[in-house]
Design goal:
The protein is an all-beta fold and about 120 residues long. It is built from no helices and 11 strands.
Length: about 120
């Protein structure tokens, strides 16, 4: 009974910006590490950025300096601010979170994905 719901994807021109959100809801004691991943057509899913519960971040080299990951622990929500978008950023973006349930079990969950399309 844990859900991750992404929003904020869409179509944008190269150089534009988008902000993705991921809300974690359901039977939750706490949320540990969270992250954004993406998968382009015909490609494997790849890491975009991660953030710990304490706010430490990690980015793929391809997005460093352009994307910013953040979270609001009180709202169980994670964000991805994407600036200076490039056509190669086109992909389905997925939210991932390690959720601690009331049974004190930590388990990774995935959202359904949100499409980001960057036109040249």
């Amino acid at each position: 009974q844990v859900q991750l719901v992404e929003s904020g994807g869409g179509l944008v021109q190269a150089g534009g910006r988008l902000r993705l959100s991921c809300v974690v809801s359901g039977s939750i004691l706490s949320v540990n590490d969270m992250g954004w991943y993406r998968q382009a057509p015909g490609e494997q899913r790849e890491l975009v950025a991660t953030i710990t519960s304490g706010g430490s971040t990690n980015y793929a080299d391809s997005v460093k300096g352009r994307f910013t990951i953040s979270r609001d622990n009180a709202k169980n929500t994670m964000y991805l601010q994407m600036n200076s978008l490039k056509p190669e950023d086109t992909a389905v973006y997925y939210c991932n979170a390690e959720v601690v349930t009331p049974a004190w079990i930590a388990f990774p969950y995935w959202g359904q994905g949100t499409q980001v399309t960057v036109s040249s």
